[in-house]
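agent> Task received from the user: take the single chain below, predict its 3D structure, and emit structure tokens. No templates, no multimer pairing.
agent> Plan: (1) validate residues, (2) run structure prediction, (3) serialize to tokens, (4) report one or two observations.
agent> Step 1 OK, no nonstandard residues flagged.
tool_call: predict_structure(input=
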Amino acid sequence: MSQTAKRRISSMSYSLNKLYRRLSTTKPSTFILSAITIAFVVFLFGGGVYNLIVRPYPAIYYGGRFILVDPRLSEQFIADSIVAMILYAFGTIGLIMIYQSTKYAYKPRQAYMMFIVGVVLILLAFISLEYVMHAWKGV
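)
tool_result: status=success, residues=139
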């Protein structure tokens, strides 16, 4: 830190100096940083930036029913991205559960159950995303 910055900081009142020291030495929790990063990545993968920039419709009412998923591949509704974000979150939670199951080597039953639930969540997310792409989008 430069001398001028140190001089300015030292001349602040005691409470502001104490607040500055607390904020400059704070180490955030790795769990919170990981959760924020994962949420941001799921938001990006789910099409959140597209929703912010283009501002698509939430859904449309056509032929006496609501259409939540746009059948065109180049377009999407808000519901499309919500479905994608939920399914990506399921897959991510499944991967985290599989990783956590490795920490329970001394409890094989619990490790096995966490592993199975993680694999089921990953398969559910993958199969659901493939179904959306093939059945609803026609790809």
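agent> Step 4: summary for the user.
The longest strand covers residues 60-62.
agent> Done.
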